[in-house]
Fold:
Amino acid sequence: MEKLKMKVLYSRDEINRVVRGLAEQISRDYQGKDLVVVCVLKGAFMFMADLVRCLKGPCIIDFVRLASYGSGTSTSGTVTVTKDLETSITGKDVLVVEDIVDTGITLDFLVKKLQERKPGSLRVCTLVDKKHRRKIEFKADYVGFDLDQGFILGYGIDFDEKARYLPEIYVMEE
Ligand code: IMP
Ligand code: MG
Structure:
């Protein structure tokens, strides 16, 4: 296997601290509510697993998988659902958990799609927000890290399916 050139950007300690902070905010905001956490596969699986374990109240977990990213490093513009939710979100308080918001195209599509099912509320939590790279306006409600530049991988996030298993987040070099 070819070796990827990368260096640590966010250590496990930093990730843990940020995830705990997000979980605190979310726990406060959803106190006494029936929360449905929607994990966007595959990139958010590790983040979601850590996040829900830090929440102070119960939640239901479901998954969606979207296709928008080829093996390149930028969203093509067309998004499709390749795995839909299995639970009804109508009337429920829904929190979408994503790894990275980049151009905004993927989450804009998903949010619109989920809104059609009339959830009681719908918010988005992203571990990493690349605000400067938006092609369309999109605002996440909970943001872990703001990132100006660089292609990242690790902690669930891949490059061509590589590096998802790594516990830290790395940035690709050159
Ligand atoms: P968007 O539609 O451009 O916002 O695409 C967001 C998706 O692109 C993320 O959920 C990631 O799966 C992927 N993505 C964006 N930036 C990166 C990166 O730096 N590394 C790996 N995947 C990325
Ligand atoms: Mg993703």
